[in-house]
Amino acid sequence: MKRTATILALTVLATGAGCASYETTGSPRAALPLPPELQQYYRYQSTEPIVFVHATEEHSDYSVKDVTLFVPGTSEPIQIVWFVPNLPEPRPLILISPIRGSDTIVVDDCARVFASCGYHAAIVKRARSKFDPDGPLSQVEDTLRAAVIRHRRALDWLLVQPGVDPDRVASFGISYGAIIDAALAAVEPRIKIHVIDLAGGPLAGVMRSSDELSLRHSWDCIRRGHDLTGKQVYQDLQDVIRTDPVKLAPYVSRDDVLMLIARFDRSVPTRYQIRLWHALGKPRADFVLLGHYTSILALPAHRLSIMNFFEEKFAEPTQPSAPGGIQAKE
After folding, report:
1. Is 315 left (phi over 0), alpha (psi -120 to 50) or beta?
2. Residue 15 zone, left/alpha/beta (φ > 0; ψ -120 to 50; rest)
3. What is the pLDDT of residue 321?
4. pLDDT digit string (tens) for 101-132?
5. Tell me, what's the pLDDT at 319?
6. pLDDT score at 19
7. pLDDT in tens, 1-33
8. What are residue 13's phi and psi, to 5 degrees?
9. Distance of CA 16 to CAs 11, 197, 271, 316, Å?
10. What is the distance between the alpha carbons of residues 251 and 189, in angstroms, rounded to a whole number?
11. Most buried of 112, 118, 187, 321 (most Cβ within 10 A)?
12. Nearest-CA neighbor of 76 among 98, 49, 103?
């Protein structure tokens, strides 16, 4: 009974808070060209994967398939949940990055809405990396870079599937997934538009200030294991993390981004969400008077903004995507 009352109260709060939308003003802010050293940093070997596809659901509007890509030379397969619209003509693709705590919670419902509206929606599951508190701080960056490349490899396969329009591709991520999404916005030219929800930066500041228990634990373990002060951990992480949404923001076109920003977020503290928003040139955004997890209750209203954003951007003329994006040996 108490739990039901709590859920009801949060729902009323979310409904009352609603979404306040910000529209961009002034001249468009184009992306700066990605420097050659960053192009090289995110390159990877283009290798034909071994693919297994298993159909799991059939609906009137779409079907669902579990896809596993075994890429030679990598330690873990890429797993994708692919929502396929039941339409004959080529349709846009939404590449989805899940939250840190789950592969499909929250984003599953969003993917179903996208598929019902005629979009391919592909959730790229997270790799099961294990953080070693006694290991080098570079493992934080290694994990982020590997996640970006993992999504790019998934995109390689998805873009050659029947029914997928390679010139109409968007990305969508929430929380940790949005951090990966923000990096993809800078380094992956085949993805044209981006929805970045509840992400912030610089990441060293997010990790230092977050109330998220897993992040607090990792921070304290790093500090004790390396015998560093909090200030030293922050500075060392600032130096080592290259896949940071604020650092990569100059290489993202402002007008191709929609954000969701929570005004009372303590997991990805609001001030760092605002810093990322400013770094991206203050793109279109929905602001909610909620916290990190309660913002999920505002997603139905935010999804309307997302769908309008997709419809608007997919209707605009686009430059054809270059096959395979940036490809080279790691």
Report:
1. alpha
2. alpha
3. 57
4. 666 778 999 999 999 999 999 999 988 777 77
5. 63
6. 73
7. 444 443 333 343 444 445 788 898 888 889 999
8. -60, -45
9. 9, 20, 23, 34
10. 11
11. 187
12. 49
Going by pLDDT thresholds of 50, 70 and 90, the confidence category of residue 317 is confident
Cα 144–Cα 146–Cα 150 angle in degrees, nearest 5: 120
Helices within the chain (DSSP H only): 2-17, 36-41, 107-116, 138-158, 176-187, 203-209, 213-225, 230-240, 245-248, 270-279, 299-314
309, 284 in Cβ contact below 8 A? yes
Quick one: tokens of 286? 């929905």
Task: Identify the CATH homologous superfamily for domain 33-313.
Answer: Alpha/Beta hydrolase fold, catalytic domain (3.40.50.1820)
- Angstrom distance (rounded) from CA 197 to CA 194: 10
% helix / strand / coil in the chain, to the nearest 5?
A: 40, 20, 40
For 190, phi and psi rounded to 5 degrees? -75, -20
Rounded to 5°, angle at Cα 320 from 318 and 323: 145
Residues above pLDDT 90, as percent of the chain = 66
Q: List the structure tokens of 81.
A: 């949940």
- Preceding omega of 202 cis (within 30 degrees of 0): yes
* Higher-confidence position of 83 and 322: 83
